[in-house]
Write a structure and sequence with these properties.
- It is built from 5 helices and 4 strands, in the order αβααβαββα.
- The protein is mainly α.
- It has one domain: Winged helix-like DNA-binding domain superfamily/Winged helix DNA-binding domain (Arc Repressor Mutant, subunit A, Orthogonal Bundle), CATH 1.10.10.
- The strands form 2 sheets. It has a two-stranded parallel sheet. Strands 3-4 form a two-stranded antiparallel ribbon.
- The longest helix is centred in the last third of the chain and has 10 residues.
- It starts with a helix and ends with a helix.
């Protein structure tokens, strides 16, 4: 299984209404390659099935998304996640740990 596939498998575990970070995914894979996690998210061809919109930066900023930041924010809001000034509100409470 490729690194990207391992990332996608973890993403399927994140429930709606929760978020995780690139660093949390890397840590779950016993790696420090959080930038590689970001690259895997950017290459995700099944954006909604494999919910990479739930992956945000460690500083609570929403980060980039293949369909644009505004679409990512809209998807997060649809799942009940509040975003203000490009940051997830209640970040620590919503953070999913593997």
């Amino acid at each position: 299984m490729t690194f990207a596939q391992q990332c996608y498998k973890l993403l399927e575990c994140i429930p709606k209404g929760s978020i995780t970070t690139y660093a949390e995914i890397a840590k779950a894979l016993d790696s420090k390659a959080y930038r590689a996690v970001g690259s895997a998210m950017a290459k995700n061809k099944n954006l909604i099935i494999i919910p990479c919109h739930r992956v945000v930066r460690s500083d609570a900023k929403v980060g980039e998304y293949a369909l644009g930041k505004e679409k990512k924010i809209a998807l997060l809001k649809k799942e009940g996640i509040t975003v203000k000034d490009d940051k997830v509100v209640n970040f620590d409470a919503l953070l999913y740990h593997f």
